[in-house]
Amino acid sequence: MWGRLHGLIGKEFAQMLRDPVVLFLILFLATVELAMCAMALGFDVKNLKLGVIDHDRSAASRRLVQELTSADTFVLRNQFASMRDAEGHLRAGALDVVIEVPANFGARIAAGRQASVGVVVDGSNADVAARARAYIIEMTARFAQQRMTAMPMPGGVQPAVHVWYNPDLTNTRLNALAMLTQAGFMLAIILPAAGLVREKQSGTLEQIRVTPIRAHELFIGKIVPPVVFVLGSLFPSLLVIRLLGVPLNGSLATFVALDLIFLMSAVSIGIFIATISTTLQQALLTSFFGLFPLLFLSGGIAPIESMPYWLQVGIEISPLRHFIEITTGLFLKGAGIAELWPHGLALVAIGLPLFSASWLLFKRQW
Length: 366
Hints:
With about 375 residues, this protein is of the alpha/beta class. The chain has helices at about 1-15, 20-30, 30-40, 60-70, 85-90, 105-110, 125-150, 170-200, 205-210, 215-245, 250-275, 280-295, 310-315, 320-335, 335-365, and strands spanning about 50-55, 75-80, 95-100, 120.
């Protein structure tokens, strides 16, 4: 048996190593595409186009505008006499936000009274609008806090906020780690599915059936090489995310061990797809049919908390959902098995039925 198994695994490795296109795509997905997506999928919005309507023209109103434009979040494009003048620029897309400062703004500030400003945000792009609104709220609150510091008042609460694990609150680290897990997930599904269906189409699977090779030997021979290739692609990916500033605060050995459990679930999905597909086109379309929902609902692209409750519950059966939690915990928080065992147990609980189902269906067809 070991001789036959060695021959099958060697054949699979030889076929993959002789295909330069597949090798290039694996390396490209694990390095270049990972870096591009990590940097491009950031949700930090900069250089928002700001218009100002200053009816007050006081020192306080000028300081407010200066506060808004002191960083690279807002860029002052123009000042207007009225909202009617600014409306055309908003409609044309020349402005993202318009701030209207009332005439009594400076006087109310000087008297220690509450002052308000009008804010109009272009909501045609909901994501940008939400970010712009949050930035305005944050910056005006900071401006008000500075005024309170300059004119102390009795009582009040001043929170001292410390951000752990991602102190500058950039999305690049989470995006890089999400792409690391998603790239491995895609490869572990597509490689075994494409390899097994290719054997069907070329007729070599029929020739293998007349040999003494057993079903479990062929099954193992089909899953070992993709797992090894995906694990191998992990190391150039680790170099890329390190260059992107993502630290590894946890144990690399723990990450590789949990990654192996995760990949077994993904490979099982690939084998399952291959057994129900007769052509390579069917296998690829079926793979992407299942991949896209799992990728978008994993928490790496959109927050789980923003999803409907029934989706939050349903996505718990996805191995990718749990492995992203494991990856961010290991890399950013320095978590270990003591903290991550629930997600590791979930990977095992998900992977065993998937592996068993793919094996039973493969054996039935064999």
